[in-house]
Structure formats: structure tokens, C-alpha cells
């Protein structure tokens, strides 16, 4: 796989109550990813950037919501997120080690 492509696959981590529970209970971490990213690319990108071993990847397509602002109708963009499960003994720290 192209190294430049791997560096752009992950758009950022998703930090929420649900993702924190997934990290604590199941050793899963949640990332926002490019819409055309594959599971294999996502796993390789996480292994390369965070120096961990990936056990599995699950991908979810999140549909954009319809919104209105006064009389104007609009739609938020659809996006994609990935749940990445790490092998036992590995961890990712997004807190900065306080």
C-alpha cells in the first residue's frame, strides 16, 4: 500500500462517551476515516501511526441528517467511522499522559 495514502486514511479519533466505553471494555478505538477507505488500509494506518497491532476493524457509514435553518433546507454530509480492536497488551493514549 502507498505510504502517503496510509497517512491520509485516518481523519481523526472520535472521543465520545460511547467510544470511551468501547475502549475501556473491548479494547476498541474509534476513528473518523475517509469515505473510500478499506478495512485493510485502516488497520495498516493505525499500526503504522500508533505502533500497535490491530486485531480487527469494523466500519460504519453514518448518514448525514436533514437540517433546516429557518425556511432553508439542508443536509449534513455523510461520513464514515471505524472501530479498531487492538490485540491484547497494546493501548493508544489520546489523553497526552497527564
Could you outline the blueprint of secondary structure elements for this entry?
Elements: H1 3-9, E1 10-13, H2 17-26, E2 28-33, H3 39-50, E3 54-62, E4 66-69, E5 72-75, E6 79-86
Antiparallel strand pairs: 1-2, 2-6, 3-6, 4-5
Helix pairs in contact: 1-3
Structure, described:
- The protein is of the alpha+beta class and 98 residues long.
- 30% of the residues lie in helices and 36% in strands.
- It has a single domain (3-65, 73-86), classed as RRM (RNA recognition motif) domain (Alpha-Beta Plaits), CATH 3.30.70.330.
- The strands form 2 sheets. Strands 1-2-6-3 form a 4-stranded antiparallel β-sheet.
Q: Which residues sit in consecutive blocks of at least 5 with pLDDT less than 50?
A: none
CATH architecture: 2-Layer Sandwich
| Beta fraction | 35-45%
Indicate the CATH topology.
Answer: Alpha-Beta Plaits
Mean pLDDT: 93
Rg value: 15 Å
Strand element count: 6
CATH superfamily: RRM (RNA recognition motif) domain
Total domain count = 1
What is the CATH C-level name?
Alpha Beta
Biggest β-sheet strands, sense, barrel: 4 strands, antiparallel
Computed structural class: alpha+beta
Distance between the first and last residues' Cα: 35 Å
Percent of residues in helices: 25-40%
Q: Figure out the total of helices.
A: 3
Shape: globular
Strand order of the largest sheet: 1-2-6-3
Name the helix and strand elements from N-terminus to C-terminus, one letter apiece: HEHEHEEEE
